[in-house]
Amino acid sequence: MKMIKIVTVDDHPLIRQAVRSLVDEREDMNLVGEGSSGKEVTPLVEQHKPDVLLLDLSMPQSVGQEGQRFQALPTISRLVERFPETAIVILTQHYVPVLIKGAIKRGVKGYLLKSDDLSLNLPSAIETVSKGGVFFSETISRNLFRGPKDKSETVNLTERQIEMLNAIYSSPDAPYSEHAKNLNITESTFKSHLTKAFKALGVTNVTAAMIRCMELGIVSTEI
Questions:
Q1: What is the rounded distance in angstroms from the CA atom of residue 202 to the CA atom of residue 100?
Q2: Distance between CA atoms of 33 and 149, rounded to whole angstroms?
Q3: Closest CA to 214 of 172, 177, 183
């Protein structure tokens, strides 16, 4: 059983305690580091190389310095570039669409609101993103990905490509060879279709493809 290493940075002690309690209940998860300010984020990731970083967006840059706020989006960009193996999940009390889209654009793999049922969603989010998937809370999925679609925006995907993208979304940790076998095609054919799907979607990797498909309503965002 692979142990999922987790770091959490949040200035609210009760949230850190909740995370600690939920992680302690899981035999496959280990909370290896905690922080309470923006300046601790990068050092903690450098030290522990976690599989998952749980990150608050609204907190001081340093403890006791409420006037200087954590610059979340630039930090996320740097972390994604330097530590691509660490999946970032935002855990915040604020539902701000512009901020959510900015974080997604910069490479976060999940976004949860503190008003969600964390006992249900947080372990699932950690497990999902650690396997290469994406996870957004019900509130965010409903408002960000299930709203009215722009009918003028079309993407030329074949039925087979849509089937493949849904298969990856459902089982993000499964190897391409397994997906290909389930679809009765060769792995090379699977990869060829996927490359063409990426081009049609205007993306270069699986995570970006999944989020783009969620925006377009191509895959189900039911949690």
A1: 20
A2: 41
A3: 172
Of the listed ranges 7-16, 92-101, 159-168, the one predicted with least confidence: 92-101
Q: Are strands 87-92 and 52-55 parallel, antiparallel or unpaired?
A: parallel
Helices (H), 62-205: 72-82, 97-105, 118-130, 138-140, 159-170, 176-182, 187-201
Interstrand relation of 87-92 and 60-62 (parallel, antiparallel or unpaired): unpaired
Q: Report pTM.
A: 0.77
Check if the beta carbon of residue 28 is closer than 8 Å to that of residue 4: yes
Q: How many CB atoms lie within 10 A of CB 69?
A: 13
List, in order, residues 6 or more apart from 14 with CB less than 8 Å away: none
Instruction: Work out the number of other CB atoms within 10 angstroms of the CB of residue 66.
Output: 11
Q: What is the mean pLDDT of residues 144-165?
A: 72
DSSP 57-92: SSSEEETTEEEEE--HHHHHHHHHHH-TTSEEEEEE
Q: From 214, 163, 208, select the one nearest 189 (Cα to Cα).
A: 163
What 3-state class would DSSP assign to 30? strand
> What whole-number distance in Å separates Cα of residue 52 and Cα of residue 118?
16
